[in-house]
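User: I'll paste a sequence; please echo it back and then give the predicted structure.

Assistant: Echoing your sequence first, then the prediction.
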Amino acid sequence: MTVTIPASAEDRLTVPEAQARIQRGEQLNTIPKATWKQLLTPQQYDVLWRQGTERPFTGELLNNKQKGVYVTAGCRLPVFHSSQKYKSGTGWPSFWEMFNKDNIVLKKEWAWGMNRTEVLSKCGEHLGHVFDDGPAPTGLRYCINSAALAFVPDSASPVESIHK
């Protein structure tokens, strides 16, 4: 379910209201930046809303081997599944395929002297980048910041069947 909040109501959205909407699974396209700053850790906010990058080999989800779904840290959109994760050696969680293409937006950008493709959630969260040096069958490497993700173990929630 997607909830559209009128701009006037959005400006008055409190942290508890935003948390309740996220916990109910409502996908908010926009939440005021001030509210995100209160909901997220400083590192999550930097990565998701300032297009930051965590230091390699420091992310909590880098070596996660549990089965389950990776959702965005803010809007809680399912974006990757553990079956699509692989060890790339780059220092960030890497996936060879998206779990739910409807929840991801790819945006071409020119940065750091190169063309690359930014990976965003459909609610605008910066997740990382995609490169064409991944394994078969796609040849793609979705290089994603751990701080941009939260993990939902298969046993905890039927997220896969709901959002596929």
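Confidence is low (pLDDT under 50) at residues 1-12, 158-164. Residues 76 and 136 are 28 Å apart (CA to CA).
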